[in-house]
TrEMBL record:
GO terms for cellular component: nucleus. It comes from Jacana jacana. It holds the Pfam family Hydrolase. Belongs to the HAD-like hydrolase superfamily. It comes from the Eukaryota. The gene is Hdhd3. This is Haloacid dehalogenase-like hydrolase domain-containing protein 3.
């Protein structure tokens, strides 16, 4: 039987958009513009470490902890460079501000295969659509710059809502905003815990984007797995 769905909600990072190049490469290019030479691989490692530490200390971009997400990210970028041996405060601040703004633009992002045409086709079939993403408040800008914003009725970020997936409350906020009951909603994302099982926990349907070859969790029936985004409509209309 064809799934009766009225609303599709979407994760963004690594579901619709991905970084064009590793973080370390973008950071190394910024450093080079200031005459500072750092290896991209070292920066990628330092970034993971700085990001993890900051996320543990100030979850959800410091929301509710007196930190703006802008300040949260500036601290992560500066710490990434410090861990890679760059210490001069003036240069750190300059690079951090530049990179914070750079990641708003389309230049650092690219669409996943099938993203654009899948969204257009879902739109044509009359599905209402929204975004549920653990992202900071730059997401609206990023979606606009990548020419995707117009597909969505709402864009919910964890920073704005105050709760991050897999917290039920960010999904409940989407249901409340749309007025669509959960059994008529499907959430599409690439993370088993934050996207697939979290959506199902509130009674929504879930589709898990999984590149072939990546081991799927045993609890996910094959008809909920998307090898690519282009498989979505086929699965819905089965």
């Amino acid at each position: 039987a064809m799934l009766r769905l009225r609303l599709l909600t979407w994760d963004v990072k690594d579901t619709l958009l991905q970084l064009r190049r590793p973080v370390g490469e973008s950071y190394a290019a910024e450093a080079q513009a200031h005459g500072v030479r750092v290896q991209p691989e070292a920066l990628s490692r330092s970034f993971r470490e700085a990001y993890r530490a900051q996320s543990q200390r100030f979850p959800n971009y410091g929301r509710g902890r007196g930190l703006s997400s802008h300040q949260w990210w500036v601290d992560v970028v500066k710490q990434t460079f410090r861990l890679s041996g760059v210490q001069e405060e003036r240069v750190l601040t300059l690079m951090a501000e530049n990179l914070y703004h750079d990641f708003c633009g389309a230049g650092n992002w690219e669409m996943l295969p099938g993203a654009s045409e899948t969204l257009s086709r879902c739109h044509q079939r009359g599905f209402r659509m929204g975004v549920i993403s653990n992202f900071d408040n730059r997401l609206e800008k990023i979606l606009s710059h990548c020419n995707l914003r117009h597909h969505f009725e709402f864009v919910l970020t964890s920073e704005e809502v105050g709760f991050a997936k897999p917290d039920k409350r960010i999904f409940q906020k989407a249901l409340c905003l749309s007025g669509v009951p959960p059994e008529l909603v499907a959430h599409v994302g690439d993370d088993y815990t934050r996207d697939y099982s979290a959506a199902r926990a509130v009674g929504m349907h879930g589709f898990l984007l999984r590149a072939t070859g990546r081991g799927a969790e045993p609890e996910v029936p094959p008809e909920h797995i998307l090898p690519t985004l282009s498989h979505l409509l086929t699965l819905i209309e089965k």
